[in-house]
UniProtKB/TrEMBL annotation:
<feature type="transmembrane region" description="Helical">
    <location>
        <begin position="382"/>
        <end position="402"/>
    </location>
</feature>
<keyword id="KW-0472">Membrane</keyword>
<feature type="domain" description="MacB-like periplasmic core">
    <location>
        <begin position="21"/>
        <end position="248"/>
    </location>
</feature>
<keyword id="KW-1003">Cell membrane</keyword>
<comment type="similarity">
    <text>Belongs to the ABC-4 integral membrane protein family.</text>
</comment>
<protein>
    <submittedName>
        <fullName>ABC transporter permease</fullName>
    </submittedName>
</protein>
<dbReference type="InterPro" id="IPR003838">
    <property type="entry name" value="ABC3_permease_C"/>
</dbReference>
<dbReference type="InterPro" id="IPR050250">
    <property type="entry name" value="Macrolide_Exporter_MacB"/>
</dbReference>
<dbReference type="Pfam" id="PF12704">
    <property type="entry name" value="MacB_PCD"/>
</dbReference>
<feature type="transmembrane region" description="Helical">
    <location>
        <begin position="281"/>
        <end position="312"/>
    </location>
</feature>
<feature type="transmembrane region" description="Helical">
    <location>
        <begin position="341"/>
        <end position="362"/>
    </location>
</feature>
<feature type="domain" description="ABC3 transporter permease C-terminal">
    <location>
        <begin position="291"/>
        <end position="412"/>
    </location>
</feature>
<keyword id="KW-0812">Transmembrane</keyword>
<dbReference type="InterPro" id="IPR025857">
    <property type="entry name" value="MacB_PCD"/>
</dbReference>
<dbReference type="Pfam" id="PF02687">
    <property type="entry name" value="FtsX"/>
</dbReference>
<feature type="transmembrane region" description="Helical">
    <location>
        <begin position="21"/>
        <end position="41"/>
    </location>
</feature>
<keyword id="KW-1133">Transmembrane helix</keyword>
Length: 419
């Protein structure tokens, strides 16, 4: 138990040689600082890399068509085919584990030729034909107006929702946007909404230069008919898209007379699979961070252990007197362990505080200079602080265990004889 006299004894022992105490504590301070900073930097790298996924539902995949590589049912290899609107309906009806199946068509590109005009201003933008549920797969902040609706789909309305950089490119500052018209490849569309991507890292240049129009309007205005360029498919929560995608591929192969073993005819990008790989990589990096940090911390703990052994040797006569006056071995052992524990925890908590300051400075710099590629918001959670505290407690006990055992093995008579 701690009491005032015990605290005074511990503080007196630590103050007996302040420089030695400082050097001993610095090893633990530096070890815990390295541990916390390594975990924070790992999280910053993870946040930056996963930001490339945007806020798109990670339990999703994109699917498109490619040339066949095997002949099948009299059809040659190298044949190209297109998805149809009927394929979307077939996927929804025959594969119940899918939450969203969004057909998409695409026109142009923000680095391509000018395809949008308003008055004397022109711009090259990404034009997408989409369904209303796409906003649930790729969350967006609607800044003005609204997103696409099913009435737009059914009535094939010539309306559009435009990104913030489209507004900057085609409109004057503070100009009213909603209800105005822009011309896309010679066809007039009324602007019903503006958006930006819902993420903390700022708008991706391509996303901000995007225009969404109803899928059916896209097919009619740009002569795509019922063709589908590609699909964004999302599975229900709790069901991995990776476990479902082969059923989708088999269904499309049977509908388009593709050899069942043709693995290249259907192209796809599995966000869930890629996301899991990235999470696995950063889990390994986190383990490496703990490993390296604990190794550095161990050097500080060894230093405390050595210093406590020296302290015990220096206080041999004192220990003999205490034993002669009736102090039990557990009382002697408890004092040595408490001294070691307090030194370890105090220096460790200072290290945690110092690393928290460094993390705050890094985030302040990132906020001032803007997003950095593949790095964002370095931070650690409270579980890391609690883990560090547990490591410090265990380390402090281990550091004092050998000196404490050595102190209790001394016989009072022998201890008193030592000069």
């Amino acid at each position: 138990m701690f009491n005032r006299e015990r605290w005074n004894e511990i503080l007196e022992a630590l103050n007996a040689n302040k420089f030695r105490t400082f050097l001993t504590a610095f090893g633990v301070f530096w070890g815990i600082t390295i541990l916390v900073l390594l975990l924070a930097l790992t999280n910053g790298l993870k946040n930056g890399v996963t930001a490339d996924f945007g806020d798109f539902a990670t339990n999703s995949m994109f699917m498109w068509t490619q040339g066949t590589t095997k002949p099948y049912k009299g059809l040659p290899k190298g044949r190209y085919f297109n998805y149809k609107v009927e394929d979307v309906a077939a996927i929804k009806s025959e594969i119940p584990n899918l939450k969203y199946v969004s057909p998409r068509n695409q026109l142009g590109g923000f680095r391509g030729e000018n395809n949008a005009v308003r008055g004397t201003k022109t711009g090259a933008f990404e034009i997408y034909g989409d369904y209303p549920e796409y906003i649930k797969q790729q969350p967006m902040d609607i800044l003005q107006g609204r997103f696409l609706s099913y009435s737009d789909i059914e009535e094939k309305r010539k309306i559009c929702v435009i990104g913030v950089d489209v507004v900057k490119g085609l409109y004057d500052k503070d100009e009213n946007v909603i209800g105005t018209y822009i011309k896309i490849n010679g066809v007039n569309f009324m602007v019903v909404g503006t958006f930006k991507m819902a993420n903390s890292q700022g708008d991706n240049e391509q996303d901000a230069n995007t225009i969404y129009i109803p899928f059916t309007t896209f097919g009619q205005a740009f002569n795509r008919g019922d063709r589908v360029g590609w699909m964004a498919i999302t599975a229900y929560d709790g069901i991995s898209i990776t476990s479902v995608k082969e059923k989708v591929f088999d269904l499309m192969k049977s509908r388009h007379k593709i050899h069942p073993e043709d693995e290249r005819a259907i192209g796809h990008f599995d966000l869930s699979e890629q996301f899991q790989r990235i999470n696995g990589l950063f889990s390994i990096l986190t383990i490496v961070g703990y490993f390296v940090g604990i190794l550095v911390l161990a050097s500080g703990i060894i230093g405390i252990n050595n210093i406590m052994l020296i302290v015990v040797k220096e206080r041999t006569k004192e220990i003999g007197i205490r034993r002669a006056l009736g102090a039990t071995p557990w009382m002697i052992k408890g004092q040595i362990l408490q001294e070691s524990l307090i030194l370890t925890i105090l220096s460790g908590m200072v290290g945690v505080s110092f690393s928290a300051l460094i993390i705050w400075i890094m985030n302040a710099i990132l906020d001032s200079v803007g997003p950095v590629e593949n790095f964002a918001n370095p931070s650690v959670g409270m579980q890391v602080v609690f883990t560090a505290l547990i490591i410090l407690v265990v380390s402090g006990l281990l550091a004092g265990l050998i000196p404490a055992n050595r102190a209790t093995k001394m016989k009072p008579v022998d201890a008193l004889r030592i000069e």
